[in-house]
Automatic annotation (TrEMBL):
InterPro entries (alphabetical): Glyas_Bleomycin-R_OHBP_Dase (IPR029068), Glyas_Fos-R_dOase_dom (IPR004360), Glyoxalase/dOase/EhpR (IPR026275), VOC_core (IPR037523)
Protein source organism: Legionella gratiana
Domain annotation VOC: ranges: 4-121
Protein's UniProt name: Bleomycin resistance protein
Annotated Pfam families: Glyoxalase
């Protein structure tokens, strides 16, 4: 059996707020929207979906904050530039740029507390 994971879904409380947040975060517009759903193309073959938690079946019992969506960037300078850019947009930062075992990193959260980690490998 073969399969190709190609979609990450986040359940969100306000689709408009979350769509705006991810448009700012990713610097792209969604490729598809509905009243309760938005989809972003992250790269060929990988999409991010935002789904209104009120429309999900079966209904979710756990919401944001229990995992991370990680985005690798080229170098430490890019980490610092992204951090400053997002801080200037009043994104909620929960970890400032720091060195960890795997590389240089920071973490921000979306409006529903889904964690987004940016990192550059050592």
């Amino acid at each position: 059996m073969t399969f190709d994971p190609n979609l990450v879904l986040f359940y969100v409380s306000n689709i408009e707020n979350s769509t705006h947040f991810y448009s700012e975060l990713l610097n792209v517009q969604p490729i598809h929207t509905e009243p309760d759903y938005a989809m972003f193309l992250l790269k060929p073959g990988l999409r991010l979906g935002l789904w209104s938690q009120n429309s999900v079946k079966p209904a979710p019992t756990i919401f944001g904050g229990g995992s991370e969506f990680a985005i690798q960037v080229v170098d430490e300078q890019t980490i610092d530039e992204l951090f400053e850019n997002y801080q200037n947009k009043n994104f909620r930062m929960i970890q400032e740029p720091t060195n960890m075992d795997f590389g240089y990193t920071f973490v921000t959260c979306d409006p529903d507390d889904h964690r987004i980690r940016f990192f550059s490998k050592k």
